[in-house]
Amino acid sequence: MIWRLCVSGSDQEDQTAANNGGDRVFISAFFVGIAAISFGLGAFVVLAEVPPYQSMKNAWRAGTALWEQRTKYTDVERLDFWAEARTDQTGVTIHDVNRAQNGLTLYSSGDGPHAVLIDMDGNIVHEWRMPFSMIHDETSPIPNPQKDDFMHWHTAKMAPDGGLIVQYTAAGDTPYGYGMAKIDQNSNPVWKYLGTAHHDFSIADDGRVYALTQEFRFNTYANRKQLTPPRLDDFAVILSPEGKEIKKVSILDALINSSYANMVDFAPYFANEDILHTNTIQLIDADTAKNFAYGKEGDVVVSFRDLGIIAVLDMDVEKIVWATRGSWLGQHDPDVLPNGDILLFDNQGQLADPDAGQSRVLQIDPETNAITWQYKGTATHKFDSNIRADQQRLPNGNTLITESSGGRLFEVTPTGDIVWEFHNPIRRDDPDNPDKKLIPVVSQAERITDARAALYRDTVPASNTGDAQ
Known about the structure:
The protein folds into two domains: 2-50; 85-455, Neuraminidase (6 Propeller), CATH 2.120.10. The protein has helices at residues 2-6, 9-48, 53-72, 251-256, 286-289, and strands spanning 82-84, 91-95, 104-108, 114-118, 124-129, 151-158, 164-170, 177-183, 189-193, 197-203, 209-217, 231-239, 245-250, 278-283, 300-304, 309-314, 319-325, 332-336, 342-346, 360-364, 371-376, 390-393, 399-403, 408-412, 418-423, 428-430, 433-440, 445-448. Strands 2-25-24-23-22 form a five-stranded antiparallel beta sheet, with no helix packed on it. The protein has a four-stranded antiparallel beta sheet with strand order 5-4-3-28, with no helix packed on it. It contains five helices and 28 strands. This is Aryl sulfotransferase.
């Protein structure tokens, strides 16, 4: 004690500094140790999948998603609704009046929630616009939707009465399907459905709508441990002509409870959190069922992109009753044709000739998966859409094709001649490369050839008729 009293002031300061330095080292070592222990425990919990493994996993996913949303989705032009423009051409660039199917063409565009109806020369006959903010309310499962600029109508189809039914898709959010609405010719809402509808829908002659919805589920399956929660699962729903939900079927349950359940085991590693990624639903009506041996009237054809599966869902027994896989990759829009064949967009299955593009449109015999007709690109007319896209068999036997990533619509004859072509006329500067232009994707299109066209112009178009399969 006497020694301490005799220590000089400077010596006391040095001693205090040394003590403080030691304290800081100890405190730092303490927190590093705590961090190391926490990391070790966290790693054990995650690898061993013991509680609270799922909570930690969910928190990590939520934080990662929030960070990505805040940092990646800042500019509209950086969304995957936009792609690099492949040409300076806009509007109709090819029109063979003698061989093209006359009518009006309806398409939706990635630059916003709107759809356009054009004539064969590319002139705008009608346009609809209605932002999601006009129909969003507290009943929506999406409490804080993205800005309207970050959405578009993935699909827009004309109802039997000439009204337009549309589906809203958002970027940077999950679920990304925001719902559906029916709007009149003046873009006023007739009804809205705020279930998380996504991708596609089919309209029955009586006005009912068969749609796809998605939601997070936390259930598990005894024999499918790889299907860990939470998952983004798909449902097939039936809406009344007034947009009211009258039935809802879990598509994953329908597959797991069927004789095709083992197909789930071949899902790629990246797909377990969105195992089916259902991108198509087509109603099998009475005419379609006549020559199609694998489904009855009222069933629906569905497409599971990452599994490479085309299937038939019986909405009555809520079970998959038929499924097949083929040479296609990342497929969209399988349509049952009047002769019983299936027409589909094969997004990435054309591997033999990379100069022609990776996409094809295939017509297959569902009994054998044999290709009975196909269209693929050439070096001079490259055909390439890695995601989205669809096709429509026209009354004259031609096929209208939507090349989404290229922002292009075109019509081909059975022999593969292009007799009509249209490029989305909208362009914007690439924020990452001012020397390049961007074009909004065209997710889906249809040619209107029947009496509905008369609602939007003075006379009904004269249809080219023929025996189409």
